[in-house]
Structures are given as C-alpha cells and as structure tokens.
Design brief:
This protein is of the alpha/beta class and 339 residues long. Bound molecules: the ligand C=CC1=C(C)c2cc3[nH]c(cc4nc(cc5[nH]c(cc1n2)c(C)c5CCC(=O)O)C(CCC(=O)O)=C4C)c(C)c3C=C and fe (ii) ion (FE2) (2 copies). One of its GO terms (cellular component) is cytoplasm.
Length: 339
C-alpha cells in the first residue's frame, strides 16, 4: 500500500488582525515563549506581561495597521501561496499543510488535521533558512509537544536549516538581479537579530566570541545563527559578484543592547554620514515579506537614511512565491533534484 507523506510548513505567525487586542494577544504568546525570552520563568512573566506587552502592543498595532493590505498580513498571505504552489509542485504522493508558530493557523490545530490523515510520514519544514532556537527550535519544540500526545507516532523528519542550499541562494540572487548593484553605494545583508546569549548557548564553551563564526561553519558551530547568517551572505555575495568591501552584514529588530552586532539601523546611519546616497538591502533570514522587511527596512531605515543625508534605501523583495524558492522547498522535501 502506498501512503501519502504530510508536509508541515511552519512560519513565525502574525496577529489575527492589526487591532490592539489581537496584537497584544500575538505578542503575549510570542514573547512568553521560553525560547524567545530565555530568562527565568518569574522574571519572564513580569517583564513580558507587565512591561513589554502593555507598552509595545499599542505601538506595534499602529505599525501592523500600516502593513495590513486587502489580503491581510503579507507573511500569512505569502505563506499560504507557498503552501499551494509547493503542493502542486510535489504531486500526488504529498499533501502540504501550513501552520504558524504563534496565532493561526496554530500548530496543534493543523497537526490534529494531519493526525486524521494517517500519514506514513510527516516532514516538518520551518520557513527559516538559518537555525535559531527562537524560530526553528521553537517550531520543532511545539510540534514535538503535540506529537508526544499521539498514540500512533508516524515517521517524522525535522528539517532544521538550509542556509546554504543552492536553490535558496539562487532564489535570493534572482531577487537581487532585478537591481543593478553597481548603481548602489553599498549593500546591506540585514538579518533578524538575536540576543548574544542565545548564540552563546549553541557553543560547548558558551562563548560565540571565542569561535570564528564570522568566517567559518564547522561541526561545532553549524547551528550558530551568526555563523550561518555570515555563510548565507558569503554565498550570495559570491553569486552576485559583490566584493567584500561593498557589503556589510548587520542585525535588525533588537530589543536591547546585548543583541548581535552591528545593528542595522546604526549601519544605515553610518552609510548616510559617510555621504552614501543609495543602498540596497537584502534580508535573507525572512522568506516572506513581513513587518520586519516592509516597514522596518522599507520605511524606518529609509527615514533614518534620509535624515543622515542619504536618498534611497532599496529593499530587495523577499522570496514570497518565487518559483525557485518553491523548487528549493520541493528539493528539501524530496531530497536532491528529481528524486
Ligand atoms: C528569523 C526569524 C526570526 C527570529 C530568529 C526571531 C527572533 C525574535 N523575534 C523577537 C521579537 C519580535 N519579532 C517580531 C516580528 C517578527 N519576527 C520574525 C522572525 C523572527 N524572529 C518575523 C517574520 C516577524 C514579523 C511577523 C509579521 O507579522 O510580519 C515582533 C513583532 C513586531 C514588533 O512588535 O516589533 C517581535 C516583538 C525576539 C525577542 C526574538 C528572539 C529572541
Ligand atoms: Fe522576531
Ligand atoms: Fe557562534
């Protein structure tokens, strides 16, 4: 008997609507995750529920209102498109489901639908190219929490990262080729930030700084987010012939000062202060455009650059529903090309 394989695509999640109450509920679920705010339980409850969420929710809701389109949140819209396109591309032996780590469609609800399908095998595929405990780790953790309650546990494959997959790199390079890179004074590769202690914890000696993560990926640091962000950048820069002196790797969306450096907003400021007029920004930790790309890079960094004498911050569109991105996901599910 030939049974189907169920593929579970997982993205980060987005509020149900841009209202303050829905944004509050989203932030509360997100920031109470011990893999996201990795501090002792009581401290996290106080910090998140009494300080961060009450202050942040009204401000974030205003930003989400700017982001929202007739199709809703871009992150959810593009993730749903990818689900449909990947299912078409995989053919009849596979069924693809989409869940969000926070809010909806939730991982428990989607897994319950999948349980009733009696798949022989489930492939869990988070839409994060570089592993971080706060993104991929958390998605896997939540899937395992639910699967633990099942009586029948089928074969399960967890895909943890693909920061160097040739089709992932090619899909981003294609996005970059829409722009004449020679027209830009500088190129930024701006990744979502992380607290330094979260990358420290990947290393056996608890200190990312003692390793050469900026330049090499090896067995010891292969799940260090900083190392894989730099590795993605090197591959993309090589593909697009961007010399080392023309680009900077930086980290955005920090919540405090002890996050990975350099900070993207400060690099944008420095580019303006140096007299640069046009900068091109890739954001290869995100596979779908979202608040962090459209608003933070497209609007907020544009404003900072302008205030510092610059003219244009050009965001390179994320992978969204790119055919090469779909080929990459198909390859991750099926194994190397045409298997
Ligand atoms: C690469 C993937 C992501 C990692 C790693 C990640 C870590 C991380 N994020 C926060 C705090 C926030 N992130 C927010 C939005 C957001 N984050 C990601 C991805 C990763 N986050 C995405 C795709 C988005 C956008 C979602 C959307 O709806 O478009 C937000 C909410 C927005 C805001 O209020 O600014 C917060 C907060 C932390 C603390 C963290 C790791 C410790
Ligand atoms: Fe985030
Ligand atoms: Fe590291």
């Amino acid at each position: 008997m030939k049974s189907k394989t169920g593929v579970l695509l997982i993205n980060l999640g987005t509020p149900d609507s841009p209202s303050v109450s829905d944004v509050r509920s989203y932030l509360s679920q997100f920031l109470n995750d011990p893999r996201v705010i990795d501090i002792p339980w009581l401290l996290r409850k106080i910090l998140v529920n009494l300080i961060i969420v009450p202050f942040r929710a009204p401000k974030s809701a205003k930003i989400y209102q700017k982001l929202w389109t007739a199709n809703g949140s871009p992150l959810l819209f593009y993730s749903e498109r990818v689900k449909t396109l990947l299912e078409d591309s995989l053919g009849s032996d596979y069924e693809v489901h989409l869940a969000m780590r926070y809010k909806n469609p939730s991982i428990p609800a989607v897994l319950e639908t999948m349980r009733k399908k009696h798949y022989e095998k489930i492939i869990v595929l988070p839409m994060f190219p570089q592993y971080a405990s706060a993104s991929t780790g958390s998605a896997h953790d939540e899937v395992m929490r639910v699967l633990r309650t099942w009586w029948v546990i089928p074969e399960v494959k967890f895909i943890s990262q693909y920061y160097d997959h040739p089709l992932f790199i090619e899909a981003f390079a294609e996005r970059g080729r829409k722009y004449n890179i020679a027209d830009y004074d500088h190129v930024l590769f701006s990744y979502h930030g992380l607290p330094e202690r979260q990358v420290d914890k990947v290393h056996d000696d608890g200190a990312c700084a003692r390793h050469d993560c900026q330049h090499t990926v090896n067995e010891e640091n292969q799940y260090c987010y900083k190392a894989t962000c730099y590795a993605t950048t090197r591959l993309l820069a090589a593909k697009l012939n961007i010399p080392a002196e023309k680009y900077t790797v930086c980290f955005q969306s920090r919540l405090d000062k002890k996050w990975l450096m350099p900070f993207s907003d400060e690099v944008v400021r420095q580019c303006g202060d140096k007299g640069m007029k046009k900068i091109l920004v890739f954001s290869p930790a995100f596979t779908a455009d979202c608040l962090e790309t459209i608003i933070e890079i497209g609007d907020e960094y544009q404003e900072i650059f302008h205030e510092h004498g610059g003219q244009k911050v050009q965001l390179v569109e994320s992978l969204n529903d790119s055919p090469t991105w779909i080929d990459c996901l198909r390859d991750l599910v099926k194994g190397p090309a045409n298997k």
